[in-house]
Every structure is written in C-alpha cells, then in structure tokens.
Write a structure and sequence with these properties.
With 311 residues, the protein is mainly beta. The chain contains 1 helix and 22 strands.
C-alpha cells in the first residue's frame, strides 16, 4: 500500500511531465478534402488529407497553455517539410522541401491563441511513398521556440499524389521463352504502361512443347533500390500472383491473360527520387514442370496515376 508521501511524489511527477500546452493543427478545407490511409511506424493506420502539386495548404494552429501556465517563447513558426528517410539510417531525414512561416514574435502565451497560416501553390515534386527501406513524407511542423525546458514541437502528416496523363506512345510487350528442342513459348501484352486501376490483357502461345509443364503463374513484382553513399540496397516484393494454367499445355494452344490491377497495393514508378531511391515494376512469368524445375521470364512495366483515380 502506497504511503501519502509516495502518492505525493507520484502526483508531482505526473504533473511535472505533463506538456505545458497543447498544439492542434487544422486544415482550412479539412472537412471536404479527400483523406487517404497512412501507416505509421508503429503499424497504426490513420486518415490524412491528400494534396497534389501546386495546391494551397492553409489552416489554423491553436496553442492552448495548460491551466495556470504561462509560456515564454522566442517565437512561433510553422514549417512545411518534404523529407526522405532511409530505414537503415533511421532518424536522419533528408529535406528536399523546406518552407517556413513565422507566426509570432518572442513573447508570452497566457491563453488559447490561434494563428492562421498559408503556403500558396506549393511545389511538391514527389509522391508520398512508404517502402521496405525508405519513406518519403510530407509534414507540417509547429515549433514554439524556447531557451529553457526545450522547444515545444508538434507534427501533422499529409499525403501527396502525383498524376500523369495517359501516355501518347504505349507499345505492346512481346517476349519469348525458349529451351533448345524442348520449349518455345511467346508472350504478348497489350501495352507496357499501365495506370493503377488498369487491366493487363495479353495472350500466351505454346509453339513448341516437349517438357511436361505443370503450372504457370504471372506475378507483379516491385523492386525498390535505395542509395546510401556507394552502397545500393535492393528489395524485391511479389505484390500479386495469378495462376494462368494448371495442367500440361499442347502445341498450338493459346491462353488469354486478364489481370485487374485495382485490388493490389501499387504506386507509380519512381525514377531517381532526389538521388535517393527508385521504384520499378515487373511482370514475371513463372513456369513449373513436373520435376519441380522453374523457368522465369520478366519484363519491366511503367505504372502511373491518373487524376480521376483520386479526385
């Protein structure tokens, strides 16, 4: 049983470590703007506002001191940050966008105070991304600057999507798999560039078959390459696996391919993002014979996001 002294110490510590104020950040169009899920580091998913390049980002920041507290500060500011974090260098962020608005000059905050803010036509060059070894994020960071007791900082996340019009040139994909005197198969896909809700349509032709093929699958693979100094880390994920055939084909047979992309967690292809990472997608065809031998053939595809898929 705790003594009165122990309870007093406990209550004192609780009171001492309470934040001296609460900071809330609200977007001016928060009720109407589309929200998308964002997975945090602890695995928790929350809905955050979705923006696009050149959008205005505006709202209000409210700082409310704890009852009976007065906050002496050296200024209040809000920053809009675009950051890249490598998971093998966790905690170190590389800023590719950094905008600042000064909200208040040095002084005291004695009561609930609200500051409007606005960042007009913000250039957001890259899309938000959460990968295996890297994440690209956008945040609003509010700082109450203080000399003693440490500055008070609050963050809020938002997402950015980048959009592309349909490509004017979109060539088909033709591939061959051949094993001398044993196997000759041709693959044809209707195009090489797909939007995130697209359908992959194609056909597989068996021209020469002398091995006993047991099954055939098509896979969508994502390859993430991150660069740190002279070291490149590569991670490959299989995001989708679709069975095309179960059983032995015969010469002259053809199999249609129709794979819907909308159920899968895809992002646009990312090319050399701030010299830090790349994200590429591949169609991978896998054949398995009755002896368990596996044969592979893959081709890179380009993924892009259409504006109508979000707004």
């Amino acid at each position: 049983m705790k003594s009165k002294f122990d309870k007093a110490v406990y209550n004192f510590l609780i009171e001492a470590f309470k934040p001296v104020c609460t900071i809330s950040i609200k977007f001016s169009d928060g009720r109407t703007r589309k929200k998308v899920p964002l997975t945090k580091e602890n695995g928790q998913t929350l809905l955050v506002p979705l923006f696009r390049d050149q959008d205005n980002i505006a709202g209000k920041i409210t700082i409310e001191p704890r009852q009976g507290k007065r906050i002496e500060h050296n200024g209040v500011k809000v920053e809009l940050l675009g950051q890249i974090e490598m998971y093998f260098d966790r905690g170190n962020f590389y800023d590719f966008t950094s905008l600042v608005r000064e909200l208040d000059c040095p002084g005291d905050i004695n009561e609930r105070t609200t500051y409007p803010f606005e960042f007009s036509m913000v250039e957001m060059r890259y899309e938000s991304y959460n990968g295996v070894n890297v994440r690209l994020r956008y945040v609003l960071k509010v700082t109450v600057c203080r000399n003693y007791g440490g500055s008070i900082v609050e963050y809020t996340n938002f997402m950015v999507h980048k959009y592309s019009p349909p490509p004017t040139i979109n060539t088909s994909i033709k591939m061959e798999v051949g094993i001398e005197d044993c196997l000759h198969i041709e693959f044809e896909y209707n195009k090489s560039k797909y939007h995130l809700k697209d359908v992959i349509i194609g056909k597989i032709y068996f021209i020469h078959v002398k091995i006993k093929v047991k099954s055939m699958d098509i896979e969508i693979r994502r390859r993430e390459s991150t660069v740190s100094g002279a070291t490149t880390h590569v991670e490959t994920e299989t995001l989708a696996k679709f069975e095309l055939m179960d059983g032995a084909p015969i010469r002259g047979e053809s199999i249609p391919v129709r794979l819907f992309l909308s159920p899968y967690d895809l992002t646009p292809t990312h090319h050399n993002i701030n010299n830090k990472f790349n994200v590429k997608y591949y169609l991978n065809l896998v054949l398995v014979d009755e002896e368990g031998l596996r044969y592979f053939k893959q081709h890179q595809i380009t993924m892009y996001r259409l504006p109508l898929q979000d707004f």
